[in-house]
Amino acid sequence: MTSGGVSTAHAVSPDSGEHWTAEGAWQVAPGIHRIPLPLPMDGLRAINVYVVESDDGLTLIDGGWAIPVARELLDSCLRSIGSGFGDIRRFLVTHVHRDHFTMASVLGQEYGAEVALGEGEKPALELLQASGRGEVTENPFAVVLRSAGAADVAEAWTAGRTDADLPDPKDWQFPDTWLAGDHEVVVGRRTIDAVHTPGHTPGHYVFADRADGLLFAGDHVLPTITPSIGFTVPAEPDPLGHFMASLTKVRSLPDLRILPAHGPVAPSSHARVDELLAHHEDRLVRCRESLRRRGPSYAAVVATDLGWTRHERSYDELDLFNRGMAAMETKAHLDLLVARGEAVADETADGVVYRAH
């Protein structure tokens, strides 16, 4: 939720020479185009879908959100490079969040393109499918929010929920291929490393083209913001610990150009990983200091001692959705302090209470 470097709102991408959300199929390397697709939200604004051309058709890294305006733009951008939906042979989806997965799910079903997704995302898909069938009676995020001591936010998130808000089953079909472990994927002349990077979600993958020095980074390494942590259901133990270990794993790869899901193309995976690791170590220190000063506290209370976004806004200044995100991310930091032996967690009827060790 917090940023570093150039503001995403003002970031120009070097491939286009324009703001990174500018419509078009922008060439980032020979045979690879970046297509920003719109998102129906105020924050991220767009997702970058990457098109990799080969003699037997197209491979897309991520698919976008299955909304009409994004589908129409993807269609027109593919046509601008002489292709169409029927040329898509495969989607390599970095993770299960709707802005990455749902268009791939829909187009894969319609056009017979293979959809590949990390096997760690299966519990989330099972939950989404059950929700779509009306088998889940409560918003699963409410459970996580209450455990963070944010019952007021949980109640507001779920207020007024109707059947129209349930997941559409066609958007959330199981993929054709479950990605497991680290392995190579052949895409035309390219051999791309599929690297499992859990943290943002349990089954997140990045795709490294070492020969051309490119990292299709999904939401794992973002150039202008820090990926959200803890915003996933079913809840995972120690998501921040997994995320930081995955960052270290990516740091062990060659220094690659970042092709992110959100934001402009950026020059150095090593430099950005170092910034992200330092950022979270600083947040851990601040969370520990809050516990020592306040005594036993819920994550939502500790969140009020932290600054949010690049503007260091207070928790109370955030809108409802982002207060929930902040509470869940703070809980992830506190859970890592517990894993490191620097804090203790106690379950209560009103959520998890943390205290400094």
From TrEMBL:
Record-annotated Metallo-beta-lactamase domain positions: 46-262
GO molecular-function term, one example from the UniProt record: hydrolase activity
Hydrolase as UniProt keyword: yes
Entry keyword annotation includes Hydrolase: yes
Gene3D superfamilies (alphabetical): Ribonuclease Z/Hydroxyacylglutathione hydrolase-like (3.60.15.10)
Keywords, sorted A to Z: Hydrolase
Pfam name, any one: Lactamase_B
InterPro entries documented for this protein: Metallo-B-lactamas, RibonucZ/Hydroxyglut_hydro, Sec-metab_biosynth-thioest
Protein name listed in UniProt: Glyoxylase-like metal-dependent hydrolase (Beta-lactamase superfamily II)
Lineage: Bacteria, Bacillati, Actinomycetota, Actinomycetes, Propionibacteriales
